[in-house]
């Protein structure tokens, strides 16, 4: 099978789960003998543009005619079996769908977040869940509240794109891959075509490092942002410290808008270590040495890659009890779920898992089994190829019916 992957890579200054998923799927498919090529743009390249070029970027978000022309020409020349679309913001745009239609090539798309129904894709505003724009043809509340980067001006291109391209997405993609059942439920309720929405969890490569002992720290690994629950974690950890601690430090790995705040909070403490961005090998080692990985997101995560990475290493997770985490983590079996947004509940779960090493070992072993059954490369490949074949068959049938 020849697959052309379409992706706008996120800026490299901050960790991107989407970039990681795309790279891992490309590698997985190639290792299985499929031909995979990539059509991409990089957000890093925006910085090198002229002032006029930078000013034009928002105009390209709803529609980039140059991309349509370039991609359509490539599709006609190379004739891939299927196009797999990931992120199209900000430089590719939904024009990639028109290119697929122009060349008559079926398209599938992985929905990594909620941009189909929410301009910033988070279903969150002011640190709380928000669904004001879900089901609305014109997502005006997002503009009014400045939901993207706290800016009405920056939100406008996303809102326009969602509004004018909604029908194009919903009819131009043969198969959408939802990365959790929780995400699919939200999208179906928003009116997306249920028959085109399939659940395909992200997979995680089998790590070289797995936990051998009880672990030597609690680990937060991810973007340092409000939606990821970083402030919630700091409040919970302060509560833990005030009552004597749990005997192991908290390691915080990552970068993001709250980095300065987190660094200042951790300064001078011997129970917290901020280690910044880690490379993939360092991430694996940090996870394998953990008592537990903490994922306290306040937004409704569509998946949660770090949760599955922990499971693969035989490490239990303490996660917020909402969104996709509820289907990834079996409470009391593969990890612990805390009440979302509540520091006291998060602190209680951390204390429990740190105080009971035997429970942590049992949960870690159960987490590893769960990984092998649902999130291994073999399972990921099977579901990926099945989705491609369904899309190709669907396109063939629709073309046959139109004759």
Describe this protein's structure.
By secondary structure, the protein is an alpha/beta fold. It folds into two domains: 2-203 and 377-402, 3-Layer(aba) Sandwich (Rossmann fold), CATH 3.40.50.2000; 217-374, Rossmann fold (3-Layer(aba) Sandwich), CATH 3.40.50. It is 45% helix and 16% strand. The protein is built from 15 helices and 14 strands. Strands 2-1-3-4-7-8 form a six-stranded parallel β-sheet, with helices on both faces. Strands 11-10-9-12-13-14 form a six-stranded parallel β-sheet, with helices on both faces. Helix 1 links the parallel strand 1 (2-9) and strand 2 (35-42). Helix 3 packs parallel to helix 4 and helix 8 (230-242) crosses helix 13 (343-355). The mean pLDDT is 94.
Our count of helices gives: 15
Low-confidence segments, given as residue ranges, are: none
Q: Report strand order across the widest sheet.
A: 2-1-3-4-7-8
Order of helices and strands: EHEHHEHEEEHHEHEEHEHEHEHEHEHHH
Bin the helical content: 40-55%
**The top level CATH class name of the largest domain:** Alpha Beta
Radius of gyration: 22 Å
Q: How many structural domains? A: 2
Shape: globular
Average of pLDDT = 94
Distance between the termini: 26 Å
Largest sheet: 6 strands, parallel
Structural class: alpha/beta
Total beta strand runs: 14
Oligomeric state: single chain
Fraction in beta strands = 15-25%
- What's the CATH H-level homologous superfamily of the largest domain? Glycogen Phosphorylase B
CATH architecture of the largest domain: 3-Layer(aba) Sandwich
CATH topology term of the largest domain: Rossmann fold
